[in-house]
Amino acid sequence: xxxxxxxxxxxxxxxxxxxxxxxxxxxxxxxxxxxxxxxxxxxxxxxxxxxxxxxxxxxxxxxxxxxxxxxxxxxxxxxxxxxxxxxxxxxxxxxxxxxxxxxxxxxxxxxxxxxxxxxxxxxxxxxxxxxxxxxxxxxxxxxxxxxxxxxxxxxxxxxxxxxxxxxxxxxxxxxxxxxxxxxxxxxxxxxxxxxxxxxxxxxxxxxxxxxxxxxxxxxxxxxxxxxxxxxxxxxxxxxxxxxxxxxxxxxxxxxxxxxxxxxxxxxxxxxxxxxxxxxxxxxxxxxxxxxxxxxxxxxxxxxxxxxxxxxxxxxxxxxxxxxxxxxxxxxxxxxxxxxxxxxxxxxxxxxxxxxxxxxxxxxxxxxxxxxxxxxxxxxxxxxxxxxxxxxxxxxxxxxxxxxxxxxxxxxxxxxxxxxxxxxxxxxxxxxxxxxxxxxxxxxxxxxxxxxxxxxxxxxxxxxxxxxxxxxxxxxxxxxxxxxxxxxxxxxxxxxxxxxxxxxxxxxxxxxxxxxxxxxxxxxxxxxxxxxxxxxxxxxxxxxxxx
Length: 546
Prior knowledge:
Blueprint: H1 5-11, H2 14-34, E1 38-40, E2 43-45, E3 57-60, E4 63-66, E5 68-69, E6 73-80, E7 104-105, E8 115-116, E9 122-123, E10 130-136, E11 143-149, E12 162-163, E13 166-167, H3 172-178, E14 181-185, H4 190-194, H5 198-203, H6 212-227, E15 233-243, H7 245-255, E16 265-269, H8 278-290, H9 300-306, H10 309-315, E17 321-322, E18 325-326, H11 343-349, E19 357-362, H12 378-400, H13 409-436, E20 441-446, H14 465-468, H15 482-501, E21 521-525, E22 530-533, H16 537-545
Parallel strand pairs: 4-7, 11-14, 11-15, 15-16, 16-19, 19-20, 20-21
Antiparallel strand pairs: 1-2, 3-4, 5-6, 6-10, 8-9, 10-14, 12-13, 17-18, 21-22
Helix pairs in contact: 7-11, 11-13, 12-13, 13-16
């Protein structure tokens, strides 16, 4: 066993030193080999005792990890929470790690989960099931925990991705300013994360396949529950929050019985709680098989597991959005086990994990270039709507969103696609949650506009993340306005209070009203937040009829 002998020599000498050293080695042997559980501080520990005076080393149940000291926080990057899902573990639920006596150097981001961008750029690795953790050096002794699931439609993305010249999900500033522990994590994406196949169901003890990305997130939450106390966190106060595809996953985790007890509150930022049907994901999976060299193999599963990462990636569909319409085929799938039913159905029936929830969207979601909304003439706008909905329903949509009511036909299209895919589905989920639980639900509409050239994006998809992660001052070539900084402060209070108390209220910002199905209460999230009643109510009533 590797251990810091020099430290022990300064404390002991002679026979006592020898005896204690041998005892320690024996205990570690028993713990590692037989599964005996000892404790160190507040964390269950299988293979090491913390005798180091180095504050940047923390002992987890899988062994010691060493982080990096920032200004007033510690960062632990790239900590594995499950075995690498490679070889025979490809398309299997994540497996628990074995203990290690060697100190893990957790000082840099590790690889993203393997993916292909919509433009065809390949990055990442299958060996990716790791998380990142930031903890303040001072403040509350047992801190609330904020666990973030990144976006990308369950097709792309990672906690370490760059956006606008910064690492968008860097948790340092949020942890330091909010006095919370912040955790981000990788999870399997695209066909690696959601492949469904009959041969996989046959080898599964639960008779299911797919949802591996969701199972990864559950494994990470279990690791956090077991280990976060060692980092100074409170495992009874864990906020689960995500944006876009990550918000969709939060919906799935709220509805999954396998995630029960793993978080105490949740925030759903610009994501759908509709879920995927098994038949749709199976069709997508069959199309993937047909695109590989294994399509004519007798034993397709063995063949597929034998393919290289490159071969699989080349056969993957990488479409996330097209013409303003979300196209991603991957995500939480109703399989009868991980996800027994669609999240909204579970919410309404009260069969979900009942916790306080914030749910909201941005006012101009599809204005983000990611959605590829083209510039349209008035005539082209009419043609586009009729192609999407057919002429009968298209006429109703055009009556509801006439291009003459907007500054341009493109803005009319952005409003239509934002309302139908984000604003109104969020109301459906808020209504379902309000029906199925007594825990409070809070709704928001983010309407804040940035200055300069960013103004033309409107309140686009994902822009609230700069305020959530407190990175406004890090944006290159952008000087935050007084309004930007005010909103950043409000969001810090709302989000961290939700983690600490289960309510966003309590730190001097305007009161966030609790949602009710009668009033459709919400918070207009801007530089001076204000409560209101009803978000595009008549428009959402219209979409509900369709």
